[in-house]
């Protein structure tokens, strides 16, 4: 389950929140700069994926005539 949790961006966000809440005295999973990089990579990937899926949904709506409604 631990390795599945590493695939979720919440794991990295919560770890950074703990780190900053305890004034830097929390032992993070990775170095802090790497955790920020992981969150940044997730943000870029999710943005690209959402743009792709939205464009796909818009094409489907236009083909179905749902854009007229």
Show the helix and strand layout:
Elements: H1 2-5, H2 9-21, H3 32-64
Helix pairs in contact: 2-3
Task: Provide structural commentary.
The N and C termini lie far apart (about 45 Å). The protein has one domain. The mean pLDDT is about 95. The protein has about 70 residues and is mostly helical. Helices cover about 70% and strands about 0% of the residues. It contains 3 helices and no strands.
Main pleated-sheet profile: none
Strand content: under 5%
* Silhouette: elongated
Distance N terminus to C terminus? 45 Å
Number of strands: 0
**Unreliable residue stretches:** none
Order of helices and strands: HHH
What's the overall average pLDDT, rounded? 93
Rg value: 18 Å
| Relative helix content | over 70%
How many distinct helices?
3
Secondary-structure-based class equals mainly alpha
Notable features of this structure?
single chain; 69 residues; mainly alpha; 3 helices; 0% strand; elongated
Quick gist of this model?
With 69 residues, the chain is mostly helical.
């Amino acid at each position: 389950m631990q390795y599945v949790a590493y695939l979720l961006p919440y794991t990295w966000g919560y770890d950074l929140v703990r780190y900053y809440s305890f004034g830097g005295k929390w032992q993070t999973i990775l170095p802090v700069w790497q955790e920020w990089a992981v969150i940044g990579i997730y943000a870029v990937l999710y943005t690209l994926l959402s743009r792709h899926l939205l464009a796909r949904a818009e094409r489907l709506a236009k083909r179905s005539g749902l854009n007229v409604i």
